[in-house]
Design goal:
Layout (H helix, E strand, L loop, with lengths): L3 H7 L1 E15 L5 E11 L5 E10 H4 L7 E7 L2 E7 L1 H45 L1
Length: 131
């Protein structure tokens, strides 16, 4: 087995494509927890390899679906030595989660402001009719 940590740190970067996605485990509500994926990588010289990544954690990287592009690190001298760039996938998932959280917060803030403005307008409207 080659040194994955070394590849992640020093390997060349390339994109691969998810070609298979199989659920391995789910929670009591049926939500996916872990899955395995296969990723095809085509190299600039025309060669290709396939990576089979087991126990992919949904909580860490989200759901990688067939057809998704994913970051890969590989040894330019030996294309059979290739790994999914999990740190990059985890960082991207974390950014997506932070963006979604920020979007939800903006949406909620707008709804609160709109409701408060409506209440204020109703209050003004109500006072005009009662004088």
């Amino acid at each position: 087995m080659f040194d994955e940590h070394r590849l992640l740190k020093h390997g060349a970067a390339i994109q691969g494509v998810v070609t298979s996605h199989k659920e391995i485990d789910h929670d009591q509500f049926g939500s996916e927890l872990d899955y395995s994926i296969r990723v095809r990588v085509r190299f600039p010289d025309g060669g290709e390899t396939e990576i089979h990544h087991r126990w992919t954690k949904h909580a860490k990287v989200g759901s990688l679906r067939v057809g998704d592009k994913v970051p890969v690190r590989y040894d330019p001298q030996d294309h059979s030595k290739a790994v999914l760039d999990m740190p990059a996938l985890e960082a991207a998932h974390e950014r997506e989660r932070a963006d979604a959280k920020a979007t939800l917060k903006r949406y909620e803030d707008e709804r609160i402001a709109r409701a408060q403005a409506e209440i204020a307008a109703e209050g003004d409207h109500g006072r005009k009719h009662h004088h």
